[in-house]
Amino acid sequence: MTKKSSKKKDQFITGNSMCAKRLKNSRAMQMSLKTDKPEAPNSLSRLVANKCVFPLIPSYNIIQRLTLSSLSAPKSSYSPGDMIQLIFNQASDAVIGANSYLIFQAGQYSANTAIFDLASGSALNFINRMELVAADGTTIDLLPYANNWYQTKYRWSMSNQWLSTYGSLLGFTATLPTTYSGAAGVNIAVSGAASTLPWFLIPLSFISEIFAADQQLLLPFLIGGLRMNLSLETAAVAYKYTDGSPTVANTYVVNNLRLVTCNVQLQDNILALLQEMTGKQGSNYFYNQVWNVPNVLSSTTSYNLMTTKGVAQADMLAVKSRITAATTDAASDSFKAETFLATSSQTVYGSVSFPQAAVASDKEALMQGYWAFEKTMDRRDPSNVSYQSFVGGASSPQGDALVAAVNLNRSPDVALAGIAINNSKSLQTNITMSTSVARTMDVFLQYLTCLEVYLNRVIPRT
Q: How many domains is the chain built from?
């Protein structure tokens, strides 16, 4: 066999981003895949795992079997304040996170005349806190006040059409009526047996971005033994009732919850290759996490919000203002932003200001929100938020206003790479409102996480 033909038959692992550079620079990681079958010119297929691309010839069979696995929650019924723990029991299978989901029944069942609805949110309203813990006990994703971020993120990042179609699986309603005389969102109250409660389906990619579509495979070294802890929200926050005086106790149940995963059984030689790669060099996963802090503030008009979360690459900051009294009022939409009343907002990082001049109009603030949620690049992928829903008021009960928003990852001032936040350099957001009232200012900081996965441990780097 000539050297030329030998080289031609060796297909080396290549990649992109930081993971690719590490693999290319390591001779130990240049595993070769060989076959006795002839290769067709320019006919390479690809196996994508951990954002690394494995070139393979088309005749090379990668996947042995694709199945859907169902795991029931430990209990058949849960109440507000309970924690649901789900353990991924994959032994040697990888998982496609984008095709995996939670399915359950939820709501209020009893003979009653009250209407309990999800208002501007969805079934994600029930999740107060989300945590993912690897098999070695390392927390790889943690999101307190998760429902508030979910409601904000998906109303901004998804289109009106998406909320009305795919989003209806989760219980989203794209356009709410101008008054709450009836059920504004999905009504979760039923009269009769528990079996008549509405069903909801939540894709795992909407709970944590580690399950997002661009992570094609979650390898068994990560997903095996992974624990998902979901703490349920109080009833007064999770939904609102619209008749003014509910005739039953203000509570709800979550019944018959199942975790359904899309499992991929790889061929033994592919799995062995990935196992050797992971054992020697580690596999990298890149995903976004969110630092979410509600600041309960006294009645005033000027606010100075400090963001001190230590991260290496923060790429987005958003601030939502809610009336504090409404955040725990069972008769109110707890996640609704108040009417847009900001007269000035600006975020400062050292000597750099975002933007350079303070935002002083509602339309400029709306534009900053579109940019923060990456809705300015592709006009075919619009946001559900309109000018009317942004400014709020009687004609827009959902209240989608953000008093401040800034994209930190695409600013020429920071070389397109996000910004580092630490003890010596924090983010400071200055906001002036036109009225004085007790407010809760929710600060959302999105940042990049690199998770290094080895055979017996994981190391998250933020």
A: 3
Domain that includes residue 354, residue range: 286-451
Take residue 201 and report the two structure tokens written for it: 């389906």
DSSP conformational letter for 185: S
Distance between CA atoms of residues 139 and 149, nearest Å: 19
Task: Kindly list the averaged pLDDT for each block of 10 residues, start to end, along the chain of length 462.
Answer: 41 35 35 36 49 51 80 96 92 87 88 71 94 96 96 92 90 63 62 82 94 77 93 91 60 94 84 82 88 93 92 93 90 88 93 89 94 84 87 65 86 62 89 95 94 90 86
Domain stops at, among 235, 268, 301: 268
* Strand blocks (E) in 267-324: 283-307, 311-323
Assess whether 231 and 261 both reside in one domain. yes
- Taking the C-alpha atoms of residue 333 and residue 31, their distance in angstroms, rounded to an integer, is 55
Triad 378, 384, 388: Cα angle to 5°: 115
| CA proximity to 340, closest of 326, 357, 319, 324 | 319
Rg (the chain; Cα; Å): 24
